[in-house]
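S1.2 Input.
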Amino acid sequence: MQPRNATGDSFFCWDGDTLVVNILGKPSSRKDEIGEARGNQLRVSVKATPENGKATDAMVKFLAPHFGVRPAAITVVYGRENVNKQLRIQAPAVLPAVFGDTTPP
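S1.3 Output.
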């Protein structure tokens, strides 16, 4: 397992075919959306309220189709009940535009 700062100065890195992404979550938002990178975190907003990890669960379900995976392919490394999170996305088929022209190594 990668350490918490595995992404260095970027908001993401690759661990083989697994994408590791640092997230700054924004629960109770007006809409679900992938925002911009802020330092070494990607801002992701969800409408769900932050109760017992419900916002994180909603975020995983929201993000899965944006990466072309099922929700089960996304693991919350840390931050299930915190706005600061790290996710591991197993073999994403596509990447949102904020990732640029990145491809797995």
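S1.4 Remarks. Residues 54-66 form the longest helix (13 residues).
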